[in-house]
Write a structure and sequence with these properties.
alpha/beta; 5-stranded antiparallel sheet; globular
């Protein structure tokens, strides 16, 4: 039945769903992330369209289980939201594991067959691939339809609700949080927004959301994690602010704990503003980097500088020492490399 409910404050948290391709029907052989999470059986081969975090996580997961995985990406590199240097290292690592990649390639057509799917791809040349399953990992769409938003002052950016740094919409006392308000589409971001809005409504003093301080994680093997500006975007920032950059890199192969774990492949990369010492960005690939990035999120939140990190005592032997070493490396002072 239809009900009318009144409230002084309303929070829209309708989430999002997987983006699909018009004319391509999701079914037994064509999956979104939802179906890929709960397969009835393990396929022998798989095509994944899209190499963002979702696509790469499924590629790594299924490849580890012995599935022959092929990834198709329209952009010129995988993990296009990550720093290009990290994307290159990730491509090398996943290729060595046997995952096949087709870059600068789009899906032209997909047909279901008795055995699975037949996909026609268009890049430098047209090719046809067959596999048991195909996963669409091409982004998500905000759930904003049939809500009557057009009768309000709430504005949309395509399918995402526009909000300010306190998650306030254009309509008084109506907030929006989570995937429906756009990137980054991460659970920890949504949770933080929900708590912030609840405390704001309760009259608590809250700090606004700083989206540049939200860490991103890709749970693949190897893992990828980042926060802040890529080197490319940091260069644009430096040009605008008449600043110079300092970049420190430290490889996993020079860290004792990583070698003891048998995880010598990886890199920590930190980007600082030369004058102020501000940490502009951090990018990493390797074992357990999703457990390291929170330290740099804390640094950015506290506005810690390069010098602060350099003078912090890191425990040994740990992977976290690489954060210290990378900050030292930005001045050519790395101890173990």
């Amino acid at each position: 039945k239809t009900q009318t409910i009144g409230a002084k404050h309303i929070i829209l948290a309708t989430g999002a769903r997987a983006r699909t391709i018009p004319g391509v029907d999701v079914g037994p052989h064509i999956w979104t992330a939802k179906q890929a999470m709960v397969p009835e059986s393990l396929p022998k081969s798989m095509i994944i369209i899209g190499s963002g975090a979702i696509g790469i996580e499924f590629a790594s997961f299924y490849s580890t289980l012995g599935v022959k995985v092929t990834v198709v990406e329209m952009m010129e590199r995988i993990l296009p939201a990550e720093d290009p240097e990290i994307s290159k290292l990730a491509l090398d690592a996943f290729t060595k594991q046997g995952i096949e990649f087709h870059l600068k390639t789009s899906l032209e057509k997909v047909e279901t067959t008795k055995q699975g799917v037949k996909a026609t791809l268009k890049g430098d040349k047209t090719l046809t691939l067959e596999a048991d399953k195909l996963i669409l990992a091409i982004g998500i769409v905000g759930n904003t339809e049939n809500m009557g938003l057009e009768t309000t002052k709430i504005q949309l950016d395509r399918t995402q609700i526009k909000v300010d740094e306190y998650c306030r919409t254009g309509e008084a006392n109506i907030y929006a949080i989570g995937d429906v308000v756009g990137a980054p589409w991460l659970a920890h971001k949504a949770s933080h927004e929900g708590i912030m809005v609840a405390e704001l409504i309760a009259g608590k003093k809250v700090k606004p959301m700083n989206r540049s301080n939200i860490p991103g994680c890709t749970y693949s093997m190897p893992q990828v994690a980042s926060i802040g500006l890529s080197e490319e975007k940091a260069k644009a920032w430096a040009l605008e602010h008449k600043e110079e950059l300092k970049v420190g890199r430290f490889p996993f192969m020079a860290n004792g704990k990583a070698l003891a774990m048998g995880e010598g492949n990886g890199l920590i990369k930190l980007i600082f503003a030369k004058k102020s010492g501000e940490l502009l960005g951090a990018h990493m690939i390797g074992a357990e980097v999703t457990e390291l990035v929170h330290s740099l999120a804390l640094c950015k939140t506290l506005e810690a500088t390069e010098e602060d990190i350099m003078h912090t005592i890191f425990p040994h032997p740990t992977l976290s020492e690489m954060l210290h070493e990378a900050s030292l490396a930005s001045e050519g002072r790395a101890i173990h490399f």
